[in-house]
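User: Design a sequence. Structure:
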């Protein structure tokens, strides 16, 4: 019976009723399938299981009522019985009423608690040792059978309750209430503690009062100090549920796990678990809330892992043993067979100690078969390992001193952490990491990233995370991956699987990756190519690899490596006056700099606005003035391949030049505000309604709207030859847009994925995707966070994007085509679109993809220029991941950089033909300023170039400029904010 149903009943009746219920409710039992409304007794109180969708949690240990760390998510406290902890500040007093109205407190014994020297068992943190005693729930418990951190103490297989030993009372209640009662009461006080403390007293006062006063001393319950809820190990809550696999059939109520979440079937289904039509979310396996990424989730980081490694050069290294490379040492530490004896353990530790002591600044790889063999059970099968005894013996035998040995655990985790301790203490200048084998999974067929994650990566990531090898003071620096030569060779598709594994694991632990001991005779041609155009080193760098070290010398391979060294692939920016140089001045004119820096708040709050409703605007959350100035500085001071953003003439006075610069800035921002800022969009939105497609809002809009084909931008339609700077086609790209429209039922973010991936997910129908139904799927709760580890098509219904109010995917094939290779939609403040534009950006700004053998050649009428020696964003590959323009948190200025790069090429560098052959941007801008800033002709010409391709308000072929008045208004608004006078 819930308290909320008893509001009109007297307190006395309520307490009597609740007392009766307490005798009827059974004790809570782990694993019981409770239903909503079921009541149980636990921790001295009555609890009621919440109804669907929470009832599935009620039998799980993490939700044990009153004791589990997340019990409030599954249970409601119905009533409290005797307080379960002794108040330390104001004791709970049972008064005795005598003939004279004076209340005294005389408990017959003092509530006690376990001695302070007994360690407290903390769920999720404490790793109990067999035979040791721990406090929990006001009692003492002896561990047995190796309980895990979530096996909370209770009588059973893992625990036995024991006597806590001698106890010293902590406080004797002596307080005497000062208020005398005036009459006999008719009811007990209505105020009762709302939270039951968790520690039960060993005795309660035995003397009952002869009468109950109307005013009793206020009971002050002990409120435990709030602590952050412990983090569940990945997968902990799903151990009892099977993993969904293709071909599985499920009946109503069946629960299957996929992507570290459990789903319950709504009815009989053969669709994949998680499909919102047939399945409902049940729980995240690590206890994280619905919609949030689970801790063990496939990584989808906004920025790539930094690949700068001490002692290694600023380019991806490819080398055989015959080549000169930074010193690298492989240390063969204990294998699994050595862990069963102290002698074997000691020998392995001595090997590691000697290697660490002699490492200097070398790179050390720790090699053993242990990690590979315990991926699935994280070492549980190995049991107790004499880590501390063997390590102390090894330290003594080698004459070294190690601190922190006694804090290690005598298990597989402690064994692994012991090597990190050795390396960080004895080789502080070395780079070190663990070596992991690229296993059998790579030999199998995989549709894409999710398939590789489920088959292999999540187990490796879980192990490294569980063992803490890449976190804390003793964290390793790199992770190495090896491909044994005695296993079958990998073809290109299988190497793709292997590199996906490498990227996912290194993304998860957030360190660079090395490929070590790669079979030269198996993989030399893959990584170095038959020609320079076929090299896969840039592909490896995209997957976080900073070095590929082959296992043997090979004359042909050495020749290819020597050829590669004439034009290496950079890993990060290293130089002066870059976009990353925070000391870089905006311009050489101090007064102009002061003006630009001084309008930050004005521009953010009065110019960079987006429309939240018709006629109502708010400051953009995507575009900020500070980021714009960072991009402006980079493009003006550094530029790209010798080209810089023009702001003024060096020969003019500062006042004139400042006006030139402000007009140039206003012209650029006028277009940006119209194109994207007004919509708070970095990515192109799906706006395809009544545009001639087979259905409105087709999911194929990511391929091109208005029946365009963005992937073909940059390809000669007659010859089929790509523009020399075009990104390669990318049929394996899996990507989701970052931004989206926000109106009621607005379409989901654009996405692209291989057919095989969507086929496996059950999304393709006759090889085609469906559409977004903006009128369906009303959302009862508007999501404030989403699971960004999942691509758009994988997300739960009504959890597709933040702020979703309605709308849903309809996967019926009605779009008439797939989205394979369709990741080239517009991005940035002036939308960069298509393979040619992204490729040009990548070649001159990022990690170039252009074949160095083509430099100097003329292809499709373009003479190929070399990539800059120090590109501003050498750590970014916009061809492999065009979404970086919108996701990067390290470089939020990128969304502006992309627009300014377009501006420099297509507006500042405009070359006209016919009637516009004489139009020149710099000439027109100077004339507009020098002649007194009159009229709209200049901004209309700019708008025409950006929107229609010619410097006019109406272009001969493409027609009238869209929103020309908006662009004019934007232009003059920015001039106002920058303090420039004009005549409109």
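Assistant: Done.
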């Amino acid at each position: 019976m819930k308290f909320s149903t008893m509001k009109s009943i007297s307190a006395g009746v309520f307490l009597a009723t609740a007392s009766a219920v307490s005798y009827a409710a059974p004790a809570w039992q782990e694993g019981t399938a409770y239903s909503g409304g079921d009541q149980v007794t636990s921790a001295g109180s009555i609890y009621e299981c919440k109804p669907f969708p929470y009832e599935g949690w009620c039998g799980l240990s993490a939700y044990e009522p009153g004791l589990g760390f997340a019990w409030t998510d599954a249970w409601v406290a119905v009533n409290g019985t005797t307080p379960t902890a002794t108040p330390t500040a104001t004791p709970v007093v049972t008064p005795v009423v005598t003939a004279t109205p004076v209340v005294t407190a005389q408990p017959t014994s003092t509530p006690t608690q376990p001695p302070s020297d007994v360690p407290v068992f903390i769920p999720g943190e404490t790793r109990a040792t067999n035979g040791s005693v721990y406090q929990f729930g006001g009692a003492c418990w002896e561990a047995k059978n190796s309980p895990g951190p979530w096996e909370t103490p209770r009588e059973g297989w893992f625990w036995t309750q024991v006597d806590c030993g001698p106890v010293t009372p902590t406080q004797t209640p002596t307080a005497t209430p000062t208020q005398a009662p005036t009459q006999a009461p008719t009811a007990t006080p209505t105020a009762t503690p709302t939270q039951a403390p968790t520690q039960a007293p060993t005795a309660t006062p035995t003397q009952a009062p002869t009468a109950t006063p109307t005013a009793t001393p206020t009971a002050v319950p002990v409120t435990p100090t709030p602590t952050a809820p412990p983090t569940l190990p990945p997968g902990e809550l799903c151990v009892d549920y099977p993993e969904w696999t293709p071909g599985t059939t499920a009946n109503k109520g069946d629960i299957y796990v996929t992507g570290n979440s459990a789903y319950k079937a709504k009815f009989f289904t053969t669709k994949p678990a998680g499909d919102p039509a047939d399945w409902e979310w049940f729980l995240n396996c690590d206890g994280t809330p619905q919609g949030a990424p689970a801790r063990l989730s496939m990584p989808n980081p906004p920025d790539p892992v930094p690949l700068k490694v001490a002692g290694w050069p600023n380019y991806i290294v490819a080398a055989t043993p015959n080549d000169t490379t930074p010193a690298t040492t492989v240390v063969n530490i204990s294998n699994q067979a050595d862990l069963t004896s102290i002698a074997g353990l000691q020998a392995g530790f001595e090997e590691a100690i000697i290697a660490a002591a002699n490492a200097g600044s070398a790179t050390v790889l720790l090699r053993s078969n242990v990690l590979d063999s315990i991926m699935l059970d994280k070492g549980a099968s190995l049991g107790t390992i004499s880590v501390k005894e063997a390590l102390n013996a090894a330290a003594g035998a080698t004459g070294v001193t190690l601190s922190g040995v006694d804090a290690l655990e005598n298990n597989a985790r402690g064994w692994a952490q012991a090597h990190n301790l050795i390396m960080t203490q004895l080789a502080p200048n070395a780079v070190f990491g663990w070596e992991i084998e690229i296993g059998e999974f790579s030999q199998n067929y995989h549709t894409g990233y999710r398939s590789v994650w489920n088959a292999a990566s999540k187990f490796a990531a879980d192990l490294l995370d569980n063992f803490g090898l890449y976190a804390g003071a003793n964290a390793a620096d790199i992770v190495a991956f090896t491909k044994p030569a005695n296993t079958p060779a990998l073809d290109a598709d299988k190497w793709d699987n292997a590199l996906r594994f490498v990227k996912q694991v290194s993304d998860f632990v957030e360190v660079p990756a090395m490929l070590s001991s790669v079979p030269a005779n198996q993989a030399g041609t893959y990584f170095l190519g038959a020609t320079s155009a076929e090299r896969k080193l840039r592909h490896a760098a995209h997957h976080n690899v900073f070095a590929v070290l082959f296992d043997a010398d090979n004359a042909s391979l050495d020749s290819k490596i020597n050829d590669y060294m004439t034009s290496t692939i950079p890993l990060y920016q290293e130089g002066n006056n870059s976009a990353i140089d925070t000391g870089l001045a905006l311009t050489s004119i101090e007064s102009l700099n002061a003006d630009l820096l001084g309008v930050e708040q004005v521009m953010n709050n009065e110019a960079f606005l987006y429309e939240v409703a018709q006629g109502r605007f708010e400051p953009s959350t995507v575009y900020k003035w500070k980021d714009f100035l960072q991009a402006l500085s980079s493009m003006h001071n550094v530029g790209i391949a010798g080209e810089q953003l023009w702001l003024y003439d060096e020969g003019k006075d500062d006042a004139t030049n400042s006006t030139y610069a402000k007009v140039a800035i206003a012209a650029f921002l006028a277009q940006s505000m119209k194109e994207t800022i007004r919509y708070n969009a970095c990515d192109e939105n799906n706006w395809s309604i009544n545009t001639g497609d087979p259905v409105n809002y087709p999911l194929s809009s990511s391929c091109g709207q208005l029946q365009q084909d963005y992937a073909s931008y940059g390809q000669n339609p007659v010859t089929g030859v790509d523009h020399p700077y075009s990104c390669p086609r990318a049929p394996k790209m899996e990507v989701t847009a970052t931004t989206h429209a926000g109106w009621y039922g607005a379409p989901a973010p654009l996405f692209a994925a291989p057919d095989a991936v969507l086929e496996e997910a059950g999304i393709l129908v006759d090889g085609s995707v469906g559409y977004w139904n903006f009128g369906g799927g009303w959302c009862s709760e508007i999501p404030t966070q989403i699971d960004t580890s999942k691509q758009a098509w994988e997300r739960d219904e009504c959890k597709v994007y933040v702020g979703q109010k309605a709308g849903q995917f309809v996967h019926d094939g009605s779009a008439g085509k797939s989205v394979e290779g369709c990741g080239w939609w517009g991005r940035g403040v002036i939308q960069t679109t298509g393979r040619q534009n992204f490729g040009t950006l990548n070649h001159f700004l990022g990690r170039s993809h252009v074949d160095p053998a083509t430099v100097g050649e003329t292809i499709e009428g373009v003479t190929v220029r070399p990539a800059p020696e120090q590109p501003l964003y050498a750590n970014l590959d916009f061809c492999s991941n065009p979404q970086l323009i919108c996701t990067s948190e390290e470089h939020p200025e990128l969304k502006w950089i992309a627009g300014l790069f377009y501006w420099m090429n297509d507006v500042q560098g405009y070359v006209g033909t016919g009637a516009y052959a004489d139009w020149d941007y710099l000439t027109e801008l100077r004339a507009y300023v020098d002649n007194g800033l009159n009229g709209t002709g200049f901004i209309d010409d700019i708008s025409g170039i950006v929107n229609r391709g010619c410097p006019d308000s109406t272009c001969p072929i493409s027609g009238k400029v869209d929103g020309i008045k908006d662009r004019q208004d934007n232009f003059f608004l920015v001039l106002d904010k920058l303090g420039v006078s004009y005549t409109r």
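DSSP finds 21 helices and 28 strands in the chain. The longest helix spans residues 654-675.
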